[in-house]
């Protein structure tokens, strides 16, 4: 009996001779195919030492195999064996002990397997068909990965059908798009190449991953145009040279000279997906019509595998794109505020759950810091989360105060709840880097953690309110805190501090313990990693979102503010103040435009707002000009008629400024405009990192 794992298959490209060895390591039994395997007559081998089968350099290796047999162990090795004609060949030799009466059996068996000579491969179509259609197809058909399926496909077809094979598919398949351009002009990608003749030129000339369009007049173009197999029994040197010339790929001519070639189209659901290029190098039997028939049967089944992998890849890419679009690609904040996040879905089946986070830079050196949690898990919670995140992002850009923004979100959740019951918790904070104040509103969320630069830490008390979408209870209110420079602000979802085996109070104590006296100088990345330490092993955890920010004020010399009287002369005074401050900042090039912008904004305030006016300049990544007045009415941009003398101020502002906007305050409103500072990127690119949930199950 042949050893499991080394048993020679009837359809393999090899021959195996079985020899019986006695205790004296002599051959006592011999299979009838000794002449085909070793070129020796079977009877002539009986009684000879087993060592006579191998060359001098392999005797020690054979001795080791036979010693293992004496110890009752099985061993396999690659040895150089002698043929009857004096030539040598490499063989895989397996020594296997026998069990039974030593007087009635050999002590062990030797299985000597050698490769078939080229002239004898591919002779039996029945063996070829069985090798291609049985277990191998099932094996590579189990994968839904397009690249892996292609690699396993060529590993099956070589060596059972040809000596070299490559798989070409439409580039649209790899890109997870709909299949298109099925004609010869289609763009294709080579997914896999293999050969069994140890010639590295095949993979060098036809590299994996190459994207190309085959030239007209080549057999490759023919199979794409016709969607039928192309059979070239013998590729003459002239034909190979013509293919290479049209392709402008000289080495291809040398490789294809003298080969036998078959190009098998891959067709599934009446759609051409690509083709398999099969060649047999000179010395092997050439392809005939029956070989083409066998190849097409294999290609038809292989096309189904490729198509299933294509459909899976497209659906998976669509799902991942939609999921990843639900979370922010980047976090923005003023230059004085550092922000880090961690996101960990509770399920390995999805990459996004119901938790979300945001850091949105706002005009006036402010930043909105948000964390929320939709009740539930999986795709439904993620879809609702995406709606809420988009809505809250819009409300933040409209510069609504935190309590007002959450109030609008509550109405949205009530509306969504009419279709399907939903509720969510959310904490919304706005930090002003000019004043060092932090305004926070919460809807049923866990308390934020504030860690001072001296290591003092406390959970902030926010006026309680029910979750978004839950009617009744107290109204959503905000509370303002003054924070010390360098404080760390942490907001999170309940999955971080609560699980089935731990009380929430223990989780809150653990989170507080992460931050200590060294927090002021500790790297943000280290703190972000520490928050998730130990949670990866919990396979029943909830979704987790954490947002950590280090809050610092804008330097005093980067902010200037002036109170102006309600007097037309205030416009001229404002222009002088702006000119002097920009000269101090080295921004003389922006002086004229900024003076004009300030003039227009102050003129509007004088015309429509009662009481005093305040002018403020902020130099951060951009130059911001703000005018504060005591009127709650928000200005709007309009286009004045040709005969109107007024109404063009905001039009001038919108044309000269990078952007402009308004926001209400407790005392009135702020109208602001922003300009780009020469040499400073207003939105610097952050280092490219993996998207928030890409490696969420790696520690």
Please provide the count of β strands: 26
Uncertain segments of ≥5 residues (pLDDT<50)? 1-11, 690-699
Write down the Rg: 38 Å
Number of domains: 4
Average pLDDT level: 84
Tell me the fraction of residues in β-strands, as a range. 25-35%
CATH-defined fold name of the largest domain: Phosphatase 2c, domain 1
Major beta sheet, specifics?
Answer: 6 strands, antiparallel
- In whole angstroms, the N-to-C terminal distance is 48 Å
User: In one word, what is the shape?
Assistant: elongated
CATH architecture of the largest domain: 4-Layer Sandwich
- In the CATH scheme, the class of the largest domain would be Alpha Beta
Strand order, largest beta sheet:
8-7-6-11-10-9
Helix content: 25-40%
What is the CATH superfamily of the largest domain? PPM-type phosphatase domain
- State the helix count: 19
- Return the structural class: alpha+beta
Kindly list the characteristics that best describe this protein.
alpha+beta; HATPase_C_sf; 4 domains; Phosphatase 2c, domain 1; six-stranded antiparallel beta sheet; 26 strands; Beta-Lactamase; kinase activity; protein-serine/threonine phosphatase; 699 residues; transferase
Question: Could you walk me through the main structural features you see in this protein, from its secondary elements to its overall organization?
Answer:
It holds the Pfam family PAS. Residues 334-551 form the PPM-type phosphatase domain. One of its GO terms (molecular function) is protein serine/threonine phosphatase activity. Its EC number is 3.1.3.16. It catalyses: O-phospho-L-seryl-[protein] + H2O = L-seryl-[protein] + phosphate. With 699 residues, this protein is of the alpha+beta class. The protein has 4 domains: 14-116, 2-Layer Sandwich (Beta-Lactamase), CATH 3.30.450; 125-318, Beta-Lactamase (2-Layer Sandwich), CATH 3.30.450; 347-551, PPM-type phosphatase domain (Phosphatase 2c, domain 1), CATH 3.60.40.10; 556-676, Histidine kinase-like ATPase, C-terminal domain (Heat Shock Protein 90), CATH 3.30.565. It is 32% helix and 25% strand. It contains 19 helices and 26 strands. The protein has a 6-stranded antiparallel sheet, with helices on both faces. A 5-stranded antiparallel sheet has the order 2-1-5-4-3. A 5-stranded antiparallel sheet has the order 12-21-20-17-18, with helices on one face. A hairpin with a 5-residue loop joins strand 3 (75-82) and strand 4. Helix 6 (146-160) runs antiparallel to helix 12 and helix 17 runs antiparallel to helix 18. The longest helix is centred in the middle third of the chain and has 37 residues, at 289-325. The chain is elongated and about 120 Å long.
